[in-house]
Amino acid sequence: MKKTHKYDMGVIGNCAFMAYIDTKASVRWLCWPRFDSSFIFGDLLDDEKGGEFSVKPTAKIIETKQYYITNTNILVTEVYTEEGNFKVTDFAPRFEQDDRYYKPLMMIRKIEPLKGTPSIKVVCNPTGEYGEFTPEKSQGSNHIRYLGYDQHMRLTTNIPLSYVMEENPFVLSGAVYTVLTYGAPLEAAIEATSEAFFTKTKRYWRNWVKSTSISFFHQEKLIRSSLILKIHQYEDTGAIIASGTTSLPEYHKSTRNWDYRYCWMRDSFYTLNAFNNIGHFEEVEAYFKYIENVTRQEEDRYQPLYTITAQKQITEIEMPLKGYLGENKPVRIGNDAYTHIQNDVYGQVLTSLLPLYADKRFTNKYRMHTKNLVEHTLQKIADTMEEKDAGLWEFRDRPGHYCYTFLFHWAGASAAYKMAQYFDDVKMADKALKIKERAAEMIERCYDEETGVYMQAANSKDMDASCLQLITMNYLDPNSERAKRHLAGMEKELMAKDGLFYRYRHVDDFGAPETTFLICAYWYIEALACVGRVKEAIEYFEKVSSYANHVGLLSEDVDSNDGSQWGNFPQTYSHVGLMNAAYRISKKLDLPNFL
């Protein structure tokens, strides 16, 4: 295994699905019809059961290049061989049509020669039921049907069908197209339709970027993070998933392999903050509606996570697959964390709702149905104040009174107080203030006089990077000596090289962590900016962001020893961290925003 292990893939998507394409133009991961459905192509987790969708030259590959077309989610892979060169352009169509967004389950691949006369072979062998089902192929007039799925799956192409059916090579003398569809097939002209969809999709993404409000601080990184965050939103419901993959390990053979294709309520504050910071409210409004639908069905507890269609049950099972790199088992589908008690979720919901009332750009229609939700959620904070929970990191066998949970009790109550003022509800405001004061008392139970650091939990000597947010969320005055001492203590214990940060260093259910967690590094960078150490914040922002892969995508974890990427990929948490850290630094630098 290479020391410089990186995920050599780019990701395309249209807010209905995502596909992962490696630097040799093979589709390594694609789930249909939803983000959390079985993979259609999944050799990322099993090279035998995962199917194949590839464009392979017959000659030896000399070099490959992969990049996004500027300010889009359209991916280009160039392949240089001893016989000639070609490129593959991959995209998921997305554009406005009839006052709606057209976002079909359709993946278009344009394959064209660059130099010479390369000979290639196109293979398309989808699978289903996580590798347990192989569809029967049937040849049509200009398409191949894959039989046995819930809906029609077709590969429509102007490549001679027999070459694809029999997996025979052919000379690439001009541009050819493949259009893979699930559900409604492509009935129109292949070349003209593909080119029209390409032009419209490119225009859509570039217009979306143009409407993004960002400063001049590392714009290119911020644009890529914004684009990748956007395609992780399942537009049908507004849910935003943590990642499009499952069971990519936190480090090699760690067994820390989780399914992240769900919507974590604990991420809502950070995600909505990121979209707010770049001025994209359509995504924010959709996510608000998702949160409202999730919480409206809950009379008692809120779960830490839900499916993209707001379903509660996410049963975790292990699948008979080889795992990443052929040796990272188990492969898990579903996530048992939905059963965990994570009480910070109530504060997350309230802080997420606050912009509806504090930001004048939102109109009254978004505030009509939320008062009962605010009251119920505030009461849940009061009810769970003394209760142990699993904490932010979802410890499976370590219940505690976690500082991070109390911080969001405090922040949630603060948000509820401001919303009570909007409602002109004196009783709610008074209740919120009392809960806020009680939460502050609980936070102080986590303070260690000897080190000057707020520990992971009450009566604990373990540090936790989530406590950096005592500074970034203004529980601690960033200018105070207490904040600076707290930050210094956490640096000493949890910081690795280049500003990378461990979540914690203690042993948990699976042993001691071996990789750093990227969102924690960006929290650290934000904390540096808050306390006035802006020069260091910029330096570490640049170093941490350099751990992205060749197309600017961030994983969940980084091994500080060799810079390896690990964990599910790309990780919205990491990209949101980059976006929020960049925003914090640009405000400190007083750089102008523009539309």
Automatic annotation (TrEMBL):
Residues 219-583 form the GH15-like domain. Residues 10-156 form the Trehalase-like N-terminal domain. It comes from Flammeovirga pacifica. Pfam families: Glyco_hydro_15, TREH_N. GO terms for biological process: carbohydrate metabolic process. Keywords: Hydrolase. Transmembrane segments: none annotated. One of its GO terms (molecular function) is hydrolase activity, hydrolyzing O-glycosyl compounds. InterPro entries: 6-hairpin_glycosidase_sf, 6hp_glycosidase-like_sf, GH15-like, Trehalase-like_N. This is Glycosyl hydrolase. Gene3D superfamilies: 1.50.10.10. PANTHER family: GLUCAN 1,4-ALPHA-GLUCOSIDASE, TREHALASE.
